Amino acid sequence: MSKKNNISKQAVELYQMLNDWSMLNQQYDNMTGDFEKDIVEFNRQYLEAQKAAKEDYKNEE
């Protein structure tokens, strides 16, 4: 009976570890997703600013 209880205890601990890992993985995905969105937004704004600068340069000529 003691061996069976030990296996059950290990199974519960493994389940809790897996659950914790899954939660951390989800948080990481959320964080990196936001980071990737920020990079895309930055690039979009940079390209717009570059385009506007080229237009201003053309208008000055």
In summary, what is this structure?
By secondary structure, the protein is mostly helical. It is built from one helix and no strands.
Alpha carbon gap, first and last residue:
90 Å
Uncertain parts:
none
Q: Give the H and E element order.
A: H
Label the structural class: mainly alpha
User: Taking Cα atoms only, what radius of gyration do you get, to the nearest Å?
Assistant: 26 Å
**What percent strand?**
under 5%
Largest sheet: none
Query: How much helix, percentage-wise, in residues?
Result: over 70%
| Alpha plus pi helix count | 1
**General form:** rod-shaped
Number of strands: 0
Mean of pLDDT: 87
Explained architecture:
Helices cover 97% and strands 0% of the residues. The longest helix has 59 residues, at 2-60. The protein is mainly α. The N and C termini lie far apart (90 Å). It is rod-shaped. The protein has one helix spanning 2-60.
State the main characteristics:
61 residues; mainly alpha
